[in-house]
Design a protein that fits this description.
The chain is mostly helical. The protein has two domains: 174 residues, MFS general substrate transporter like domains (Growth Hormone, Chain: A), CATH 1.20.1250.20; 176 residues, MFS general substrate transporter like domains (Growth Hormone, Chain: A). Helix 2 runs antiparallel to helix 7 and helix 12 packs antiparallel against helix 16. The protein starts with a helix and ends in a 12-residue tail after the last helix.
Length: 383
């Protein structure tokens, strides 16, 4: 029976809780809270940047170590346990900039591989017909909503010093869930290559380059939204509470899309899904760039279920249909380059654009997403 795997795979998406831990802990510690001097506060962006860079490197060099499906679940167990150790190291680091930097590197060396490895595990069971990836992935979005709400509530009530303890509890639960054994256990094909695929060798494959380019253009177009939409809407008169509702609505639609996508888009190709996502992104950014009226902006936020969720599902479908020995390597590249390095680059560029053009930044994002429509995937040899 397969009744335990749903619980086991939930650990994959509790990783979001760990990410929340980093994003809340660093600004809180270095932002003048708990007696830390304000002159240090500007450095928290350096630490966040260091964390993102570390995750990118970890995905390129550590994630491929788990290239066989038999390695995935044991790997997640090890990463979850070490994640708890990393959480404790943040407690020991306190507000010391150097120690917090080291703890951040340690933490992200584990977070980096955890996400693609857990996605690869979910992809394996989707591939053999025992799991609906979308219905599993939606719990990651739910975890984001619940985690951010709980962390914000606790930080406001008792202060940021409690955040590492909450993260620690989440990691303990993650470890417990990872010890459950799904039936059947992950098992690779006898013919599957035992030699670890070289991640950088995949970059010589033109089909992989096209795949990564499409993802980079669509998901990279979200950089201005993630980094500066709140600032823009606040300048247009929206309250922080209203902005929070807009973001929550986008994630809510994302959850709904993950829930229904399996039936709604059954039989659709990855190329077709990417085109829908690109069109949705273009419409979304054009609306946000054109108006700040409540109804159009709310409708544009509803397109998050298209511009993000469908693009992610298309990427997972592409990876699932590739060779089994390349799945983890492709997951590593997907997390490291389009969602890691390129997103960081576009966030920096969006910051410069926002200072110069304000809402005009979203016009640039619309052009970027539209460019993805010009890139065509090469047919895959489906195993």
């Amino acid at each position: 029976m397969f009744n335990t795997f749903r619980q086991s795979v939930c650990l994959a998406f509790s990783i979001l809780f760990r990410v929340l831990f980093l994003l809340w802990r660093v600004p809180a510690v270095l932002g003048g809270v708990d007696g830390v001097a304000w002159p240090v506060c500007g450095r928290h962006w350096l630490i966040l940047g260091l964390g993102l860079a570390t995750r990118c490197v970890a995905n390129l060099f550590i994630t491929p170590l788990f290239h066989r499906v038999e390695h995935l679940l044991p790997g997640l167990r090890v990463l979850s346990f070490l994640g708890l150790v990393a959480c404790i190291s943040h407690l020991a680091a306190g507000a010391d900039f150097f120690l917090l930097s080291l703890a951040t590197v340690f933490f992200n060396l584990l977070v980096g591989p955890s996400v693609p490895v857990s996605d690869a595990l979910a992809n394996y069971y989707t591939r053999i017909g025992l799991l609906d990836y979308g219905k599993t992935r939606l719990w990651g979005s739910v975890a984001f909503i619940v985690g951010s709400t709980v962390v914000g509530w606790v930080a406001g009530l008792w202060g940021p010093k409690w955040i590492p303890y909450i993260a620690g509890l989440g990691l303990v639960y993650t470890i417990a869930m990872s010890m459950l054994e799904p039936n059947p256990m992950p098992e690779g094909k006898p013919s599957m290559a035992t030699v670890r695929p070289k991640v950088f060798a995949l970059l010589r494959d033109s089909s992989v380059i096209r795949f990564l380019s499409i993802i980079a253009l669509i998901q990279g177009s979200h950089a201005a939204y993630y980094g500066f939409s709140a600032l823009y809407w606040k300048s247009e008169g929206y309250s922080e509470q209203s902005i929070g509702y807009l973001w929550s609505f986008g994630v809510f639609v994302e959850v709904v899309m993950f829930a229904v996508a399996g039936k709604l888009f059954r039989g659709w190709s990855a190329q077709a899904l990417f085109r829908i996502a690109a069109i949705g992104a273009v419409v979304r950014w054009v609306v946000i760039a054109s108006t700040s009226a409540v109804i159009p902006v709310t409708l544009a936020q509803g397109l998050h279920g298209v511009s993000f969720a469908i693009a992610h599902l298309a990427a997972m479908q592409y990876i699932q249909q590739d060779g089994e020995s390349r799945i983890v390597a492709l997951q590593a590249l997907y997390s490291a380059l389009p969602l890691g390095a390129f997103m960081a680059l576009m966030t920096a560029i969006s910051g410069e654009l926002y200072e110069m053009t304000g809402a005009g930044t979203f016009w640039v994002m619309a052009v970027m997403a539209g460019t993805a429509l010009l890139v065509k995937l090469k047919p895959q040899k489906i195993e």
